[in-house]
Amino acid sequence: MRGRNVFLLVLVVAMMVFAWRNWAVFSENRTLSLIFTQVSAPFGIVMLIIMAVLVVVYFMYTVGLEAAALLEVKRYARELLSARKLADEAEASRFSELKKWLEGELVPIKAQSPAGLEARLKEVMERIDRVEHELREDIEKAGNTLAAYIGELEDQLTGQDKHPPRP
């Protein structure tokens, strides 16, 4: 997008230099037909004004598109953050419920044979804690990956991306 804007800017500057060098021809009065009537005006200046208006409209349109794209990326980022928080809370509540359930189930077993089952209970609780930790890390990695993809999308939309998109 930036290359196209630079090209248009160079083109406008070249046209300005051309108009400046040929100002006498641009400012000559000519008879212009407006379909129903005729007007005497400098044709070159009229065409320069029309071109300037079109350039301004184009740049305003481009800025509007980029602003809309950035707003969309920000909205997606907010939605991603809220979904990530919701998922973290849901996983935390599931694990706490599972832990409570397991503790409730293991209490009667623990009462039957305290020596061997206590070690087994401790081992099971450690495994549950380890699995919970690993799951939280996986969720965080997935969130970071999504945030990176959104960042790449934002860079591409703003034209700051120096690397080609991944296949």
Task: Describe the protein.
This protein has 167 residues and is mostly helical. It has one domain. Helices cover 83% and strands 6% of the residues. It has four helices and two strands. The protein has helices at residues 2-21, 23-26, 43-112, 114-158; strands spanning 29-33, 38-42. The chain has a two-stranded antiparallel ribbon. Strand 1 (29-33) and strand 2 form a beta hairpin. Helix 3 (43-112) runs antiparallel to helix 4. The longest helix has 70 residues, at 43-112. The radius of gyration is 34 Å and the shape is rod-shaped. The two termini are 21 Å apart.
Tally of individual helices? 4
* Element string (H = helix, E = strand): HHEEHH
The residue-averaged pLDDT reads 82
Shape descriptor? rod-shaped
Please report the distance between the alpha carbons of the first and last residues.
21 Å
Calculate Rg over CA atoms.
Answer: 34 Å
Number of domains: 1
Query: Which class best fits the helix and strand makeup?
Result: mainly alpha
Q: Name the helicity range.
A: over 70%
